[in-house]
Protein 1
Amino acid sequence: MFYDRVKESADYIRSKADAGADVALILGSGLGRIVDIMENRKTVPYGDIPNFPKSSVAGHEGNLVFGNIGSTRVMALQGRFHYYEGFTMKEVAYPVYVMKLLGIGEMIVTNACGGINESFRPGDLMIIDDFINSVSDNPLIGANDERFGKRFPDMSEPYSRELRDAAEKAARDLGIEAKHGVYAFFQGPCYETAAEIRMFRTMGSDAVGMSTVPETIAANYMGIKTLGIACITNMATGLCKEKHSHEEVVAVANKSSEKLCMWIEKLLRDRGA
Ligand code: HPA
């Protein structure tokens, strides 16, 4: 049974990192540096965890890293699973189910994405206010296990108002300009066409990317409060002259990651204060 598989993963992780965690961090492409500021780190490679999916993409390390930022106990996911890799939506969201059984109540999910809102520039950081799932699939499809959540979960506040306000305040205190917007989930792995970006814009999207939404849906289903921060690494197709490349995405994300790290560090220190 799915529940038993998740429990086996969680039990193994608990046996390796018994301190536990309050907040989970999912780190997007080029945004893994935050683990460097975590204290008393303990690493659990994904490959050692029973039933955990196995990742493949270059630049996505596969580790759970436990540690402290201030008094907040953090579990960072260095590397995530993408739908375009061939994982099912359930597999993509698998770590979130594990979080639930580890007793984690909050999740901060980050990603690299393309900007659609023309007031954005590469390097900007955006608090995700809402999402559009443009992929005709969902991690919750299939028999429902009430131990995780309800059959028909509400999705009226997928990104917690309280956490967005806290993030906004932390950004203001640091002098970081936080953009806001709606994130559209595109399945990839090719980048969007210019026509698709016009469609996404018409639908009300400010940014587009290939992750985050499956994990957000699963987290909300299980009552894990979620904050999403997107790094705009490029303007989307048709809104920029250059062709997209993963190398460019990672390079811009790397550059912004210092700002993002400071922001998340402040947020977590304030949270524990
Ligand atoms: N589109 C989709 N995903 C992305 C992009 C993009 O332009 N940039 C980084 N991830």
Protein 2
Amino acid sequence: MNIDGKLTAKILRVQLAAEVTELKARYNIQPSLTVIIVADDPASHVYVKNKVKQTQEIGMISNNIKLPSETTENHLLSLLKQLNNDDSVHGILVQLPLPKHIDESAIISAISPDKDVDGFHAMNSGRLFNGEAGALVPCTPQGCVLLAKQHLGEDLSGLHAVVIGRSNIVGKPVAMLLLQENCTVTISHSKTKNLPAMCKQADILIAAVGIANFVKADWVKTGATVIDVGINRISTQEGTTKLVGDVDYDAVFNKCGAITPVPGGVGPMTIACLLKNTLAAAKNSIQLP
Ligand code: GUN
């Protein structure tokens, strides 16, 4: 079966909108998210446009700062300092990738951990690693776990989760989240020996490699839950292009128990979880649980 990320994200946004309304009514605070985008990568601008629209739709304040490609690292650092000190800003997101002359890790480190709604700051990854409460957790990994639970129910205890990919944005944090859910977790990657056999052991298979249609049907255990994080644009025979995931969806669909489609799976959940983190940051700013 198909796991509908679009619908799951919509339901989550409705819940968040109700919480935003309550926060405004009871505490007179309106969560606000500032998104900074440097240069003009068309795909990034599409993502940011969606983020802005959905932030506003659930009643949050959205600030969108567009900077030219020649923006210096120092300029960005001083802007972040200003936003960190601004109490009306609850969440800050710097859209990645940044132009090559800007050191991404320096920028991520300069965002206040309390406003780091991407959850990329070392303070937040450390909290996640330690299983501490109060971490802002990266959005795509949160979305993956919510979608797995959508099919499997709340209790993932004892299931074997195999993650393909070890990035700081998806692979490593999703492995930590699944461990917190009492899964047995294997992180596999490009150097893993016999990857198909490893994947075939998975009750939950998370594909985050960035290679179109990489995971084949004979890599998947019958009945497994497959979460496809990939967003790859490929050319079609008709001379157009289309988006596909890291999983060979059509072939795997008949083998697995459930699978997230691309588009319409993990993608919409990433933005919904960004809004969830922004709400959490706003609540934390007034010491609400
Ligand atoms: N670029 C692609 N995905 C992301 C994301 O989740 N956060 C940020 N900041 N940039 C991205």
